[in-house]
Amino acid sequence: MSPGWTLGSDDYGYGFLRQPDSTIVRFFLPHQRAPRKSNPRSRNPSTRQARSLGLLVHQEAKNPYPYTVHGFLRENDGTVVTFDVPNSTATYATAMNDAGDITGYYLDASGNSHGFIRYSLDSTPPVTTASPSPGPNSNGWNNTDVTVTLSSTDNEPGGTGVKQIQYGLTGAQPLDAQTVVGTTASVTISAEGLTTLTYFGTDKAGNVEQAKTLTVQIDKTPPVISGMPAPGCALRPPNHKLVAVTTVAAADALSGVVPVVPGSFQLTGTSNEPSDPNNPDVVIAPNSSGGFAVQLRAERLGSGTGRTYTLNATATDLAGNTATSTAVCVVPPDQQNQQQQNH
């Protein structure tokens, strides 16, 4: 961005800013009589939002002499602040540092020149926000890596702009304090467990934002289902009675499995032979520990290859990871029927 001044067709001087796309923005101080000369200086030529510093030569329209020279500061939003050194006849603002401190010189009543420093009035810290991607699910968990983008702004009137962002990590993925110059920073969190991101911004005037935190919870591991019948499970003799076969449970070391959440832990059982609905052969009942107690009836048809029960378990943790398990238990035919079928 290139600052300067130009003489308009109305014979008044205007300040201008030449944007990076070559467009020209012309201005003069709206609260003054039309300026004869505006000579802006840019504190940060590489920034589209740069503040402009300069001097204003103010003349009376009917009598061009004497004239008064004022310093001025044109803010990012286009508003203009003029200033004068007390008891001076002319104030020449010549430079401004990143903190917004202005230096220059002024003339006293005798015409002698003196240097001056006008310190920045920026006392407001920047505002930094954290945006995780992907965001957590409705339970507050992620099951993949999370990238957090930090964005800091210092756009209040008189703001000097963001100097840097600082952040660090504690918990599952510790990281010592990091400093990134500029308005944005990012960090990727991949460790399972709870990681707390602490971050804050600092502006060019040295104002430090109060530290903020964001906790990221990651669980990439499916739950563990236990208690399913082992291979070779068989019910003997076929005495038509319900047999307590097993207790099936699900556990998750990180986000957890909560049975009261619909669909988080399910267990179903089926039989390859018909069953009386009024006298079920498969009884699955929840227990006090969040699992299921399973009873199967030791019953089969008098003919055929025997009865096969199939149990299917599904468990989903709060992060959305799912585990499944299948097991079978049989009521085998007696040996005599088996031998007859083989002949």
In short:
With 343 residues, this protein is mainly beta. The chain is built from 1 helix and 25 strands.
Topology (elements, then pairings):
Blueprint: E1 2-7, E2 13-18, E3 24-27, E4 37-38, E5 41-42, E6 52-58, E7 68-74, E8 80-83, E9 90-96, E10 102-107, E11 113-118, E12 127-133, E13 146-153, E14 162-171, E15 175-181, E16 184-189, E17 193-203, E18 212-218, E19 224-226, E20 242-251, E21 265-271, E22 282-286, E23 292-297, E24 307-316, E25 322-331, H1 335-342
Antiparallel strand pairs: 1-2, 2-3, 4-6, 5-6, 6-7, 7-8, 9-10, 10-11, 12-13, 13-16, 14-15, 14-17, 17-18, 19-20, 20-23, 21-24, 22-23, 24-25
Brief descriptors of the model:
single chain; 343 residues; mainly beta; Immunoglobulin-like; 3 domains; 5-stranded antiparallel sheet; 4-stranded antiparallel sheet; 2% helix; rod-shaped
